[in-house]
Amino acid sequence: MAYGTKIAKGDAYKRAAIKRRHIRIRKKVNGTAERPRLVVTRSNRHIVAQVIDDIKGHTLASASTLDTSIRGEGEKSAQAGKVGALVAERAKAAGVEAVVFDRGGNQYAGRIAALADAAREAGLKF
Fold it and tell me: What CATH number corresponds to the domain at position 51?
């Protein structure tokens, strides 16, 4: 094993639990052209939100903390809120009014909840 590649048991179990939750959620959540799926992907540093039409396999709108308008402003929860507002604005510009929320196996708390609340306040229905 190379140096620095060992994963602690706790981290491996946590990632496995997130993956199990994500698979369980994806069985139930599906996006259509009328009501696409709002997918949230979270890492330790960044958060990404995409509005996806699963039937066509197209991304209709997206936003992330890597965008220059959001990058490096405030704490991570505040950045997640800005991402939520920005993805809602871009989705509405693309003609999307309502979405199905896919939290990506993450717990609905903290940054995920901040993003969802900001998207709702910006006019996206879910």
Answer: 3.30.420.100
